[in-house]
Amino acid sequence: MYVVVCYSFFPLFQIRPFKIMPEQPYFSSSDVDEMLRNVELRTELEPYLDESVSCVLFKQFPLRFENDFLASMLEWEVAPVLPMYRWFEPELRLPSPEALSDEKLSQVLEDVIAKMYEKKIQLDFTEHLSDRALYSLIYRDILPSKEKKLEHRNCYIHWDCSEGNSDVWLTYYASDDDREQWADFYDEPLPPKRLPCFPRNLPQNPF
């Protein structure tokens, strides 16, 4: 399970119509460039828009901001869907867990986590897993997962290494407030709270 977290997300409405206001007769060369870029971007996006797609009204923002947003939309639409191991050059093909000793596996794991973070793939809730279990999860589930490969990704893929298991989250990661709210909402007993067995200092980007 993963969550894509984008920091440039804004509420979606309708793209503003393109027109030159009569009270602004003068446009710099950069203004003209942005206007032409806006036309090009919206033309390229046209095949991907339908009644189910809402677009952005940016009257309160500069045209350059709108263009950057439209460019990110276009990149998403045309990006190839590839297994994550193919996001890397060369491809990030890992040896099977069974082929590695514990010591070697831990070394490879540290290296692959750093490489994944460079591609904005962050692993969350890992500290209940041994190195071998985490490596196996990366080898078996994460790297083979097919996702959009964006060249200018401005968001992180957060991969939930608890695999959506609420008992794991409640036992090792939930705060006391989280646990109390869970118990009140679901009206069921909570698992005992425990410290994670395998603390790690992984690179983190906040939600």
Describe the protein in words.
There is one protein chain. With 207 residues, this protein is an alpha+beta fold. The chain folds into 2 domains: 69 residues, no CATH class; 106 residues, no CATH class. It is 39% helix and 10% strand. It contains 6 helices and 5 strands, in the order βααβαβαββαα. The strands form 2 sheets. The protein has a 3-stranded mixed β-sheet with strand order 1-5-3. Helix 3 packs across helix 4. It is extended and about 65 Å long. About 5% of the residues have low confidence.
Number of strands: 5
> How do the strands line up in the largest sheet?
1-5-3
Largest sheet: 3 strands, mixed
Q: What is the share of helical residues?
A: 25-40%
Q: What's the overall average pLDDT, rounded?
A: 82
Task: Determine Rg (CA atoms, Å).
Answer: 23 Å
How many helices in DSSP terms? Answer: 6
Number of domains: 2
Unreliable residue runs: 5-15
Topology:
Layout: E1 2-6, H1 29-45, H2 63-78, E2 81-83, H3 102-118, E3 121-124, H4 131-142, E4 146-148, E5 155-160, H5 166-172, H6 176-186
Parallel strand pairs: 3-5
Antiparallel strand pairs: 1-5, 2-4
Helix pairs in contact: 1-2, 3-4
